[in-house]
Specification:
The protein folds into four domains: 12-64, Phosphorylase Kinase, domain 1 (2-Layer Sandwich), CATH 3.30.200; 74-136 and 347-456 and 462-529, 3-Layer(aba) Sandwich (Rossmann fold); 148-341 and 545-563, Dimethylsulfoxide Reductase, domain 2 (3-Layer(aba) Sandwich), CATH 3.40.228; 571-691, Barwin-like endoglucanases (Beta Barrel), CATH 2.40.40. It is built from 27 helices and 28 strands. The structure holds ligand MGD (2 copies), iron/sulfur cluster and molybdenum atom (MO). The site of one ligand MGD has 36 residues, from helix 7 and helix 14.
Length: 702
């Protein structure tokens, strides 16, 4: 590799061009470092798309250099973690895994991978190859607490779980955003839109940004229209919008050319009781009709549903109806609508080759994997239920499921029952409380690699090399090397037939047919840009039996009919629906030990409620309350907010007990899920709020 030419050397510091691997936005960076410390991280203004650059990227060096970082393998001896070595770790883990496979079968090993695993192609590729070579398809992943709705619906209507449609933002006259707050989170979810929401508002013609959110979020504050509906009611809002459009204008002719099955939805739409839907969402009928009119009338438009709805009871239904709205108004695969991007990589085709996909139902609950992986909500049952195939060993790689997943209390208990638990991470997390081994993770500022799969998922596709700004400490191996060495110890062949696999060779393989290779990217300090998103590519990506969009797949249609038949008011008297919010200085749970707990706007033990609810329940700022439901109970301090609608409470997720925080996901059930995707109800959890903490004991005794 010719890296030297790209690195400017000064006497005391080195400047390296790389990109941020904390979120999907992948902001280009210039990192200044001494021989052993990061000094400064700034956006690389010579590369495109640096404008989302945020405090998380700016402070990444503090994570890399943090005193609590795991710098060597640790082994648990008599309950305590003791510093050890890779040699000892490989010997012990290899021997225990071989025995596990011999005694209980290879499915007895499972894994959970979180977001950072997915951002590192070397880590994810070697992890998946290791699981496959060992003979286990028991892979659990973060998508099942985040984006399963997207994968489920894409598979059902476009034929591939990886067919993600991006908004053509620079030509979009009306963006309907459901459950997203890009002003804080930036705009990405299986596809990045650099500066996304700002580009809509900056349109010279004055485009509309319509936001559906129970909270007057930072994005809603900038929107041209904000509708504060109740959590978990978006599906009803959308079906009422689609019904209004069908009754007033009919479907766009293009919809009939692009899709099959539209006739099945029409009788349902004609029966929709608008007043009933409006009451359910707790918005006026006129608001629904207004959105229908505006969306229909706009010259171009796109509707996007994101995690606000996807992490709730009706996530898949809402995701589907958001696509259906685009379809019936002729906003799929056209300028200003939602389009498929196939440059520089056609993800649907690549996924067919590289992502393990299979249909084996889970052992205990019998659910099928989504995008090749099982739901985290099922993991405790898989560990605790005896019988053939019971999970007895687990690798947790770049994830913190006890904190970020549902019912962390039960999961932690299950993890303690394992014969072998290996955590691969930068820090010891609450999820590692019973880990036998902690293997150090590599920080992205120490890795040479780039992820062409995620970079292709952008409205403005661009590929840039991620370069190590500093070498890994001598005592740490990159994750891929750990897996390679472990496989060698166990006599496993990781990439059948590929001699001496390495990240550059794998990345070159992924780029096959793209017209460029690893070296070209490596030698372009500011990255390689490609033609921006354009319509007309979807038909090549469809993998449905009909070759068209399947507008009304049976399971989704049935789920809709069932939801309509059992419509109940979502909020009972004195009950709250608990939702989440993100902060600029947080990334799920993984910045807790660095900038997280220092940022003043981060409240690790607070619950926000509306003024109206506070007055009704005689609660004021600072009151200590017990928040509880059938799953759990915890204490929090009240913040009375003027940006919330009534019936809704907000608690931030990601806080760990070991850092003095409250894990609000202890209230989230691992049984009460979106039945189509097994995603828990992180947004929409029913809770009661009572003044005082003396009741906490009673609840926790249950
Ligand atoms: N209530 C509620 N729950 C939520 C959410 C919410 O909004 N509300 N958000 C959900 C969403 S969107 C997501 S994506 C999930 C996230 O769930 P997870 O992906 O499980 O994410 P984290 O909890 O942040 O755990 C990431 C871990 O990876 C480690 N790490 C960071 N970089 C590296 C690396 O390079 N290598 C290795 N080996 N480890 C690394 C971090 O230290 C951290 O411990 O949480 C979900 N849970
Ligand atoms: N600073 C920061 N940025 C991040 C992350 C982070 O943790 N911190 N996480 C990254 C990750 S992993 C992801 S997946 C993305 C997520 O990015 P987004 O999908 O934009 O997620 P949020 O910013 O949580 O916005 C969700 C919004 O939905 C609202 N909401 C809650 N429940 C409902 C509901 O039932 N219906 C509707 N309509 N709205 C609802 C919430 O009030 C919130 O404003 O962000 C990424 N970016
Ligand atoms: S965390 Fe911030 S700097 Fe890093 S990629 Fe995301 S938006 Fe960009
Ligand atoms: Mo996420």
């Amino acid at each position: 590799m010719k890296a030297a030419a790209l690195i400017e050397r000064r006497p005391e510091t080195i400047r390296t061009k790389t990109y941020c691997q904390i979120c999907e936005q992948a902001c280009p960076l210039i990192v200044t470092a001494t021989t052993d410390r990061i000094v400064d991280i700034a956006p690389n203004r010579a590369a495109p798309h640096w404008r989302d650059f945020c405090i998380k990227g700016a402070s990444a060096g503090r994570v890399r250099d943090h005193p609590d970082r795991v710098l060597t393998p640790f082994r648990r001896i008599d309950g305590r973690l003791v510093a050890s070595s890779y040699e000892a770790a490989l010997d012990d883990i290899a021997q225990r895994l071989i025995r596990l496979g011999q005694d209980f079968g290879t499915q007895a090993l499972a894994s959970y991978t979180g977001n950072p695993n997915g951002f590192s192609i070397s880590n994810s590729a070697f992890h998946n190859a290791f699981m496959a070579a060992f003979g286990s398809s028991n892979r659990f992943w973060v998508g099942s607490i985040d984006q399963n709705a997207m994968h489920y619906v894409a598979k059902a209507i476009y034929g591939s779980a990886w067919c993600t449609l991006l908004p053509d933002i620079d030509h979009c006259q009306c963006l309907l955003l459901i459950g997203a707050n890009p002003a804080i989170s930036a705009m990405s979810w299986m596809g990045a839109v650099p500066e996304g929401w700002r580009r809509v508002l900056a349109r010279p013609e004055g485009a509309e940004l319509i936001v559906l959110d129970p909270r007057h979020s930072e994005t809603a504050q900038k929107a041209t229209l904000h509708i504060a509906s109740l959590p978990e009611t978006d599906w009803a809002f959308l079906i009422a919008v689609i019904a209004t459009i069908e009754r007033r204008f009919g479907f766009a002719p293009a919809a009939y050319e692009q899709a099959v099955g539209l006739e099945r939805i029409v009788p349902i739409l004609r029966d929709i009781d608008m007043a009933g839907m409006a009451a359910y969402c707790d918005v006026p009928v006129t608001a629904i009709e207004d959105v229908a009119e505006r969306f229909h009338a706009a010259k171009t438009a796109a509707c996007l549903a994101r995690t606000g709805s996807a992490m709730g009871r009706y996530g898949a239904l809402t995701e589907w109806l958001s696509h259906l709205l685009n379809l019936v108004t002729g906003r799929i695969d056209v300028r200003g609508g939602r389009c498929y991007n196939d440059v520089p990589i056609d993800l649907v085709s690549v996924a067919e080759q590289v992502f393990p996909d299979h249909e084996r139902p889970s052992r205990v609950r019998g659910t099928k994997p989504i995008a090749g992986a099982y739901a985290l909500a099922e993991l405790p049952d898989e560990i605790l239920t005896p019988g053939p195939g019971q999970v007895r060993g687990l690798i947790v790689n770049g994830g913190n499921p006890v904190i970020s997943g549902p019912d962390g209390v039960r999961l932690a208990k299950a993890l303690a029952e394992l014969d072998l638990l290996v955590g691969i991470d930068l820090f010891v997390r609450d999820s590692h409380a019973s880990a036998d081994w902690i293997i150090p993770g590599s920080h992205f500022l120490e890795r040479d690699e780039f992820n062409p799969l995620s970079m292709a998922l952008s409205t403005d596709p661009w590929v840039q090399a991620g370069r190590a700004a500093l070498p890994l400490p001598n005592s740490i191996w990159p994750e891929w090397r750990f897996y390679k060495a472990l496989a060698e110890r166990m006599g496993l062949d990781l990439f059948a037939g590929l001699p001496d696999p390495s990240p550059p060779r794998l990345i070159d393989g992924l780029l096959h047919g793209a017209g460029f290779g690893y070296d070209e990217v490596w030698n372009a300090p500011n990255g390689l840009g490609f033609l921006p998103l354009r319509p007309g590519k979807l038909s090549g990506a469809l993998r449905t039996p009909s070759g068209k969009i399947e507008a009304t797949p049976a399971p989704l249609l049935e789920a809709l009919q069932q939801a309509l038949a059992t419509l109940q008011q979502p909020i009972q008297e004195k009950q709250y629906r608990l939702i989440s919010r993100r902060r600029m200085a947080a990334m799920n749970s993984w910045l807790n030990n660095s900038i997280g707990h220092e940022m003043r706007d981060l409240r690790h033990d607070s619950i926000e409620i509306s003024k109206a609810d506070a007055a009704r329940d005689t609660l004021v700022d600072g009151d200590v309350v017990t928040v509880s439901n059938m799953t759990g109970a915890l204490c929090a301090k009240v913040i009375v907010s003027d940006s919330l609608r009534c019936g809704v409470a907000v608690m931030e997720h990601g806080w760990e007990a070991s850092l003095g925080g409250v894990n609000r996901n202890e209230l989230v059930s691992a049984i009460d899920l979106d039945p189509l995707t097994s995603v828990p109800r992180f947004n929409g959890t029913g809770v009661t709020i009572e003044k005082g903490h003396e009741r906490l004991h009673r609840y926790t005794e249950r």
